Amino acid sequence: MDDTSHRRPRSRPRRRVLAGWALACVIVAGLVLALREQDWSATRPMVTLQALPFLLISCVINVAALLCAMMSWRSILADLGHPLPRRTAAGVYFVGMSAKYAPGAIWVALTHARLAESVGVGALVTVAVWLLNIPVVLLTGMVVGSLAAPSMLGAWSWLLLLPAASLAFMLARPSLVGRAAQAAARLLRRELTASGSGRQIRAAIGWQLTCRLVSGLHLWLLTLPMGAPMGQSLVISVGAFALATGISSVVVVLPDGALIREMVLIGTLCQVLPVTAATAVAVASRAVCLLTDLLASGVCALAMASRLWRPETITNGATELPRSR
């Protein structure tokens, strides 16, 4: 019985990995069939020296978007009664987010919980922040993604009002978010102290909307060397990246929504680019995001391992913050 009890928990991760690989194979096969007879000469501008400045500026812009995402996460954490200094929050957030490249989104929550415990934040609070961050990320992605979706949805464009209405409700009644977190904690027979003010939830939504708008600019810059019209591609790119990241965030069987995001980007960017050029832009965008993610997590990991990041000092500062307000 002991052997079987140890085997059962391992079967679920294996199923998720197999499901992820199966989904990835289906998407890759579909892309290959769709792109095999296309003219790939349109992708040449992306591998020239003229495209290098656009790639470098895209990296800078994406770093700014990552900082906005971190501030959104930090705001939700503060609303649950645990404000952290920016440097501390950046260390926990970016190092923890490096786990998103493992299959299954739960690894991000577990890594955040482990790191946050060293600065005086309980695991339950960190998991609650992760859960509350999901609707914020998804709804803001859908709202900003509506910039690119109408031409694709056609008569079904009215569906875009649903995420907008949901986000407006969260802005109007942000205190309900903290109450929902408390209610979920009671079901687990745990106590979760939330401020209940909701002010930081509004700030989290604002930071996440800013993240969506800024991150889309890196995609827009990548479309310009490919010959996309400047004005139209700006709107499409910002909406496309928000829509792609929003949709891919709910696909947990693939690391960081891999292939799902590229598929949405290619389908959306085809409004302003040939399909092969859109594919090159989607691949370049993935490279930019991967590079900046690794850069941010690497810098924060080095800071945490050095004397610049001291858990005992940060813990005291974190407990003193609420008193100073």
**Sheet bearing the most strands, described?**
none
Gross geometry:
globular
- The beta-strand count equals 0
What is the helical fraction, as a range of percent? over 70%
How much of the polypeptide forms β-strand, as a percent range?
under 5%
Q: What do the pLDDT scores average to?
A: 78
Structural class, by secondary structure, is: mainly alpha
> What is the count of DSSP helices, taking H or I runs of 4+ residues?
13
Give the CA-CA distance, first to last residue: 55 Å
Structure description:
The protein is mainly alpha-helical. Helices cover 73% and strands 0% of the residues. It is built from 13 helices and no strands. The protein has helices at residues 2-35, 52-79, 86-97, 106-117, 123-145, 150-153, 161-172, 175-187, 199-223, 230-248, 260-269, 275-305, 311-324. Helix 5 (123-145) packs across helix 7 (161-172) and helix 9 (199-223) crosses helix 12. It starts with a helix and ends with a helix. The model is unreliable at 1-9 and 312-325 (pLDDT under 50).
Summarize the structure.
About 75% of the residues lie in helices and about 0% in strands.
List keywords for this structure.
325 residues, 13 helices, 0% strand, 73% helix, disordered N terminus
